[in-house]
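Re-run with default settings, no changes from the original entry. Doing this only to confirm the output is reproducible before filing.
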Amino acid sequence: MNLLIVESPAKAKKIQGFLGSGWTVRASVGHVRDLPGSGQTIPEKYRALPWINLGVDVEGNYRTVYLVYEDKKKIIRDLKHACKDADEVLLATDPDREGESIAWHLAQELGLKAPKRVTYQEITETAIKKAIANPRSIDMNLVAAQESRRILDRLVGYGSSPLVSKALGTSDKRRSHSAGRVQSAALMMLAGREHARMGFASASVNGVKVRIGTAPEFQATLIRLGTQTIATPASFGPDGALKADAQEHLLLSSAQAKEAAGILTNSSLTVVQVSKKPLVRRAPAPLTTSALQQAASKLKFSAKKTADTAQRLYEQGLITYIRTDSPALSDEAVRLGQNVLRELFGAQVLPEQVRRHAAKGNAQEAHEAIRPTEFTAPEQTGLEGDELALYRLIYETTLASLMKDAAGERTSVLLDSGKGHLLAAAGTVITDPGYLQLLKDEEDGEEDASLPALQKQQSIPCVGAEVTSAQSKPPARFTEGKLIAALEKVGIGRPSTYPSILGTLQNRGYVVNEKGALHVTPLGLVATGYLSVQLPSIVDRHFTARMEEDLDRIAGGELRATTYLDTVWKNGLALSIAQAGVAAPQVAVPGFPGAVLSSKNSEVTLSYQGRTAILHEKVLSEELTEKNLERLMNGQAVRGQRASRPKTTGSKSSTRKNTSLA
């Protein structure tokens, strides 16, 4: 009897059906041990170690002590018993750094002297049997990379958490704060956007839109009056003033706009320019983990919901492994996908050459993209609800990646009134829909209306005109999908960590997700205010990205883990932490001089015009406006919820849930 150890019980059941009676398939149920945790019983043999609570001996080449989780002790006992009865033991944990680390920890706890490792990208009978026929040893470079990340996270957390707690204030142990490496950099990115929005000054502009009486009709916009370009919202900066390159733009008054609209109505316009350019909309790449998380946000899925749902699809054998940085498709996947497309649309939708997508430079292990294993049509899978919706997204995106790009033509025209008015219009026509036959390109928004065939010097009628108004808008809030894209772009974190990053920030009160948009709370602003001044390296996205690159080098065998940790910790973060102060941060409310946020006893305080109030934890930063400040200081509600209350001498702190910045 042979023993195969996987991570998930559902996966174990599926694989057991492939292998039959000659095999026993058991699950470790994820990680089985970690560095010592809070409240965990320390075995007698370790208690004398001065660094045991930390779990890392920094001066001893970062030697570690790992303890089995309490709820995994029975699993380890059962696996040890199964190992004794097995002729051969194979470790088949997931094919990434975490999986490699779990395999190593299992080998250590189970006493396997020459552990054999097998990996596979999909849970199909063919893939499983092929993997078993080609075992290898555990890749210690991958293990070292994962362990370095874990050690560094522990050192940063344990080193900086007491400082953050003292600075923000804690009234009891249940309300301690902490700081961490990746989440803090992500929070800083969110806080930067929040500051930009709070300090944004909106500008209003008038304009004129006309209706052209051709067949079909189309609309045009007034862009110049006389020799002056009409100002648009894009002409203004975040301070509400015209940008340097737009100083000469005309701010169209209401009277000028009405006058122009009156002149243009029922007038004749002359086509003075017609330009046509070919348009190509590229077919999407196959899905990586982060791309799936971004795409699933269109389904209103959170990053965690996407990860959980994809895991279930993977364990059912419907899709390939879900943690991957690679958009590549295997030759077999291309063949299967092309066969489906021929049946659905005919061979004409296939490009002359197969489009190949390469992984980005900071990609980790070279896995295949997330794709259907056998390209089963969604309606034939038996799936329902969220699982069906996500599978359909993966299925259609993978097929679309194998189809032709969409092609068309974009036409732009300029129209002259002959009375000093210049107008512009544009339209798009898709001549070959390509992949758009299957997958709507939602990023491009609504299609421009198609324009009729127009010739230069042609005279066309304006049958109506109206005055329009518009405002400049602050930068949009991050959605979970947009934040993931931004984190990936600058190299912060890894796809597998994004759901936990977002979950941590939201669960601990630094960020609130409202209708899909991420709002940084006043507590989040105060926390980043402290970290950016006292521990800037922790929230420096470039510093964090460089650390990720070094972890990749460790995984590739190019860098020793101890060298990396010495550089980043001993010669970097440890020095910053040692020099950090613990004064309570004072964070100015953007756009409102004199309004200041701070923290005491884990509660955010707002000071304004000589008065101080404690903010309720549900008050959002965006509510700290000139209009609401007076109401907040008086303890009145904002948006119908209990807001701040006036601070009085001797008042007791309210009970709050744990808040931390991990």
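Confidence is low (pLDDT under 50) at residues 641-662. The CA atoms of residues 601 and 653 lie 7 Å apart.
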